[in-house]
Design brief:
alpha+beta, Deoxyribonuclease I, Chain A, 2 domains, 14 strands, nuclease, Endo/exonuclease/phosphatase, transmembrane, Endonuclease/exonuclease/phosphatase family protein
């Protein structure tokens, strides 16, 4: 046998060349499960308002933590790359684009300079071990108006004394209070259908004109294994608060408080549909405020009507399980 024939025989007996895994029809067949999960994730983000609340308030629960669903995108990306699946990579575009559409605007710093009215709000926690220090830290923000929620009757005088040097005017109604550098008029409780007072309104006579300030602490929500997201009382109170705001005759209005819900939560629509979020309009990032140790949601809100948000931010931790939040607006 000649040398050429030997070489031909060797080539004929050798193993066939392997097709690279990123080529060929396999890249479309692999990763179907990853692709399916990506599509479902994207649809949840796009259609979150359609998720039913009939079973355990599933819709509101999902909307409360909706930004965190974005963490699944890089996890699915790694899975798609490991599977070398073009199908999964293309499917991942759906949740990625949906998340950016919903929350991409919050990633940029929208805060500006100026403004003439600074407000702050803080759920001080009824079990706060050091109310004096908490009051001083909030006052150090330089806010013209401070709202406090979850004031125990025995703790209210402590806060009043600690804030007296900075704020000449104040009103405490039930478990919420408002402190102001400017005169307060028509301070009164607001009925949010709880049986006791957890909301108030007052007119702050600012140098730029009157501003109606509402302070509210909506009922707590719970996530229970056998009942899901229990928020019925919170939802009823949100409806009552929304009705009170809709009847407010003062055109310039600021709402401060712990609403136990995020701006995405449909159950707060009676309130959020009438007002702008200061954090959303002029903040930097998500501004998560709860829980203080590892914030996962912004349930402490500053919302406005008839004034222009300039900047919004969270304040350093106090002895509470919530972070204080503040905003500066142009009246």
């Amino acid at each position: 046998m000649s040398q050429a024939q030997t070489q031909d025989a060797g080539r004929e007996g050798s193993a066939p060349a392997r097709t690279p895994r990123w080529r060929g029809p396999g890249i479309w067949r692999r990763g179907v499960v990853v692709a399916a999960v990506a599509v479902v994730l994207g649809l949840i983000m796009l259609l979150h308002a359609e998720l039913p609340n009939r079973v355990g308030n599933l819709g509101s629960l999902t909307e409360t933590f909706l930004p965190w669903l974005g963490l699944l995108v890089p996890v699915l990306l790694v899975a798609a790359l490991l599977r070398r699946s073009a199908t999964a990579l293309i499917a991942l575009l759906l949740p990625a684009v949906a998340w950016v559409n919903l929350f991409g605007g919050l990633l940029s710093d929208k805060s500006g300079k100026g403004g003439d009215f600074t407000v702050a709000t803080h759920n001080v926690n009824a079990e706060n071990p050091d109310p004096v220090s908490t009051a001083r830290k909030v006052a150090a923000s330089g806010a013209d108006v401070v709202a406090l929620e979850e004031l125990k009757p025995e703790a209210a005088p402590v806060y009043e004394k600690a804030l007296a040097d900075t704020y000449k005017y104040h009103s405490v109604q039930g478990t919420v209070g408002l402190w102001s550098k400017y005169p307060l008029n028509d301070a009164r409780p607001v009925d949010i259908k709880m049986g006791w007072t957890r909301a108030l309104r007052a007119t702050v006579e600012s140098p730029r004109g009157p501003v109606a300030v509402y302070v509210a602490h909506l009922p707590s929500v719970r996530v229970k294994f056998n009942a899901g997201f229990t928020a019925g009382q919170r939802d009823n109170s949100a409806e009552a608060l929304g009705q009170a705001i809709s009847r407010e005759p003062v055109k310039k209005l600021v709402l401060l408080g712990d609403l136990n819900g995020t701006m995405n939560d449909r159950s707060l629509a009676p309130v959020t549909s009438q007002l702008r979020s200061a954090q959303g309009a002029a903040g930097n990032g998500f501004g998560f405020s709860w829980p203080a140790g590892a914030p996962m949601a912004r349930i402490d809100q500053i919302m406005v009507r008839g004034v222009e948000p300039v900047s919004a931010w969270t304040l350093p931790a106090t002895g509470s399980d919530h972070l204080p939040v503040a905003a500066r607006v142009k009246v």
